[in-house]
Amino acid sequence: MITIEQINSMQSADIRAIDKNALVDVQGFPFDNSLSKRERIEQVIERTKNPYCFRYGDLGVQVEFTDDGPTLCELLTNFLLRKKSGL
Predict the structure, then answer these.
(1) CA 85 to CA 46: how far, in whole Å?
(2) Predicted local confidence at residue 19, as pLDDT
(3) In Å, what is the CA distance from 84 to each residue of 7, 49, 77?
(4) DSSP bridge pairs for 60
(5) CB neighbour list of residue 18: distance below 8 Å, 6 or more residues apart
(6) Which sign does the torsion angle of CA 28, 47, 7, 62 carry?
(7) Sequence-separated (6 or more) residues with CB below 8 Å from residue 42
(8) More confident residue, 62 or 69
(9) Helices 72-84, 37-48: inter-axial angle, 10-degree rounding
């Protein structure tokens, strides 16, 4: 189980201070929608090590949220769909 301190540490990562090659490349990661929301979250954290800072091919990505904004799952899904369609 992940702690609040770990989440806060992941959120506070500064992508500008991280070597892009050290980030996990999520390009081609399959997402299993048959899993529960909790299982999908656990899978994303396990695979990316930090769902707020990762790489998609050569592109470094840092994700930030507002309290009333979309969920991480929604943002990642939309991002990957846009990349797949060439946008």
Answers:
(1) 26
(2) 92
(3) 28, 23, 10
(4) 55
(5) 53, 60
(6) negative
(7) none
(8) 62
(9) 70
Beta-bridged to residue 56, according to DSSP, are 59
Which amino acid does the sequence have at 60?
G
Residue 64, classed as helix, strand or coil, is coil
Distance CA 86, CA 14 (A): 27
Place of tokens 């769902």: 51
Identify which of 4, 21, 3, 23 has the alpha carbon closest to the alpha carbon of residue 13.
23
How much is the pTM?
0.65
> Does the pLDDT of residue 22 top 90, yes or no?
yes
What ranges in the chain are assigned the alpha helix state H?
Answer: 4-11, 37-48, 72-84
